[in-house]
Amino acid sequence: MTRSGWRTTCALATLMHASVLLADTASAEPPAGYTLRFAEEFNGGGVDFTNRWDSYWHRWNVRHLAGNNDKAVKAADHERLRGSRTVGDLLRSSGLPRKSNYLHEVRGGKMRLRAWPVPGELRDEFLGFPYVAGMVAGPRAHAQKFGYWETRLRVTSLSKGQHFALWLLPDDHGWPPEIDMLEVVSGDGWLYANTHVKNGVAPPITYVKPSGRMNAWMTVGFEWTPEELIWTIDGKQIRRHWPDIGDRPMYPLMSWEIGGNWPGSPDGSTVWPAEIMVDYLRVYEKTGSSSTPSTPSSGGSNGNSGGSGSSSGGDNSGGSNGGNSGNSGNSGNSGNSNNAGNSGSQSNTKLDLSAWDIKQGQIENRWSRKAFRRMNRRMR
How far apart are CA 279 and CA 152, in angstroms? Predict the structure, then answer.
């Protein structure tokens, strides 16, 4: 399939296929020998944007991934993008049912991370974007070199043109590397895991389709040691390879993209809002490890949403800087564009593949040289 500035190729090699029904209460335990260093349990009244989380890429002053053709501005209900009304007030005025928060709603110990379409008459106040999406980025919350990251979540609503990612980026705000712990795209029935590396070779993207799993609770884990990288879902290894991602501490993100190159455009079948429900995000460190996190953790409670007032730089973020996002690999594309033949076979024999349908292939993003130079300038 070819789109402007984009070429996608998939070379699939089926490793095994099995069909089982996994329980909705599936969970996992952290690997032995790890100690909890950071936890976001979503037990408070809202997402703490004052002291912990960011609703967009503050370092780059970027609110969407232009390199992925992302058409959703990233924001939070309390922010003012353009004009005097907050994002929450604008969405409420569009006729949506009243909610405490439309993009990051915390209730019953769970965060509902959502994306919505923007009515045409309100788009100017959304910086011209046709969609608005929730995001939590944690460079202020916690970054760590080596360890185990775990999130329990549920894909509540996902359909055509919608793309969710749970991922890690380095705290020096460069790119790559990037770890995609989990991506779900357009309701295609697959779960994706991937690696983007600056130098060297990483295996192609991993596709996972356990039977009956898309709207059930799942526990997504990622372990980074000096020897290897390991991805798990509900305690089952789905991907494993060498740790060619440098040595910078990594911080977590959860984000929506809408209408991008990978998911395509929403259509009449698309269900709104797109929604992921998140139970917790926890980060562990190997007991006795000498590595230290680059940012302090503050336990599992979170503060009140909207504490920071209007967004910094809101009037000139998004449109002017969107072309230089620097995070364009989030969609599981690029980074490994010349490595389709390197299927990661040296690690396949270690995987516990029982009860999973797992494939590996390559999704390749080819940038124009001009766009790639712009992206790199922005990252630096």
Answer: 5
